[in-house]
Amino acid sequence: MKLFLLPLLLISVISPLYATAADATKPNILIFYLDDMGWAQPGAYGGKMAPTPNMDALAASGVRFTQGYSSGCVCSPGRVGLMTGRYQARTGHDANPTKAGRELLLSETTLAQHLKSAGYSTGIVGKWHLGDTSAEFLPAARGFDYSVGTVGNLGEGKGPSFYRGKDLINELPGEPITSPVYARESAGFIEANQGKPWFLLMSFNAVHSPHVASEKWLEKFKHLSKHDAAYAALAAEADEAIGTVMARLRALKQEEKTLIFLLSDNGGAYQNAEMGGLRGHKWFVWEGGIRVSWLAAWKGHIPAGRVSNEPVIQLDILPTALAAAGATTSIPLDGVNLLPLLEGKTDKLAPRELYFRFGVQQAVRQGDWKLVKAGKDMQPMLVNLGRV
């Protein structure tokens, strides 16, 4: 009997050690997700309206993609692509949810659910915008262990605009200036989850309207018009929040253990955004509506200071995160694993097409060529993006 119990005892002792060792090889996954930020808003992309030293530092520490895309040209569809790794048209969610019935389908598996199954602590801080206020559609029911933020856009709709866990709440301390609130909540989540790998989506309301910023930042941009000053202040405040989270990451010696992405949910809103000469803006499948700032960094794994002209799309984040976590899925995905490209093992991805749709607008990109039908009564236009 004793001889039989000894192997069981050894297994019970060794198994947790193996689990801990396996967890130690899984990187944390951190996504900074801006809202309505123009492709050329960060200084690393040529932006001049507002200083973005923390975004620029992130770009310098990893890969800056010049041709990175969102899968949608407005808020919610792009978030579907990020959360599922699948084109939002597959779910019928190719417009913002204005009423019940436009939620992210419960049959879809989110990035948080995938990573939770792989042993991760999961958190979202910020804007959700993937359904109504029913409990089954809130982040807490979609794979997030920790969740706090806005259900949709600030000041939109009636009733509670915010959520904390399973509860709807009427306000967040510090709102409507949300970026500092999100920085504090995100830093707290990271500190509380050092014992296991974690996934955090820090999902900003900035720089989406309403353009309400703190007096500290408004004062710095008083030389601009009132509209531009508020927009620039929001961008700078979001950048400061990113800096706060990165500082906590470094203080906890987590930077080398963390795969980081930064991008926007869609292109910039035309009134203020720096577009870098791209045609169109949010609401359109022209480049200005879908091409976004797109950064990836992982200290010690992704070579610093690289610039890639390879077309990538936010659908790629889910399969890349799963590959980094050593996880797999049988669900058909539209995105691809970018790790070989990020780590410098290749400069090119396998040829593929990227698709975009919003209402009657449609576009497809293959290589440098993009075919666009930008309206019901408009003729398709073929554009060579290698020449623009």
Tally of individual domains: 1
Helix tally equals: 10
- Summarize the main sheet: 11 strands, mixed
Unreliable stretches covering 5 or more consecutive residues: 1-21
- Beta-strand content estimate: 15-25%
Structural class: alpha/beta
Please state the second-level CATH architecture. 3-Layer(aba) Sandwich
| Total count of strands | 15
Proportion of helical residues: 25-40%
CATH class label: Alpha Beta
The name of the CATH topology is Alkaline Phosphatase, subunit A
Order of helices and strands: HEHEHHEEEEHEHHEHEEEHHEEEE
CATH superfamily: Alkaline Phosphatase, subunit A
| Shape type | globular
Please tell me the overall pLDDT.
89
Rg result:
21 Å
User: CA-to-CA gap between the ends?
Assistant: 77 Å
Write the topology of this structure.
Layout: H1 2-24, E1 28-34, H2 53-61, E2 63-69, H3 75-84, H4 111-117, E3 121-126, E4 146-150, E5 162-164, E6 167-169, H5 179-192, E7 198-203, H6 215-220, H7 226-251, E8 258-264, H8 287-290, E9 291-297, E10 306-308, E11 312-313, H9 317-325, H10 339-342, E12 353-358, E13 361-366, E14 369-373, E15 381-384
Parallel strand pairs: 1-7, 1-8, 2-10, 2-11, 3-4, 3-7
Antiparallel strand pairs: 2-9, 4-5, 5-6, 8-9, 12-13, 13-14, 14-15
Helix pairs in contact: 5-7
Protein name: Arylsulfatase A-like enzyme
GO molecular function: arylsulfatase activity; metal ion binding
Signal peptide: 1-21
Structural summary, described in words:
Strands 1, 2, 3, 4, 5, 6, 7, 8, 9, 10 and 11 form an eleven-stranded mixed sheet that branches. A four-stranded antiparallel sheet has the order 12-13-14-15, with no helix packed on it. It is 29% helix and 20% strand. The chain has helices spanning 2-24, 53-61, 75-84, 111-117, 179-192, 215-220, 226-251, 287-290, 317-325, 339-342; strands spanning 28-34, 63-69, 121-126, 146-150, 162-164, 167-169, 198-203, 258-264, 291-297, 306-308, 312-313, 353-358, 361-366, 369-373, 381-384. A hairpin with a 2-residue loop joins strand 13 (361-366) and strand 14. The chain has 388 residues and is of the alpha/beta class. The radius of gyration is 21 Å and the shape is globular. Mean pLDDT is 89; it is low at 1-21. It has one domain: Alkaline Phosphatase, subunit A (3-Layer(aba) Sandwich). Belongs to the sulfatase family. This is Arylsulfatase A-like enzyme. Residues 1-21 form the signal peptide. One of its GO terms (molecular function) is metal ion binding. Keywords: Calcium, Hydrolase, Metal-binding, Signal.
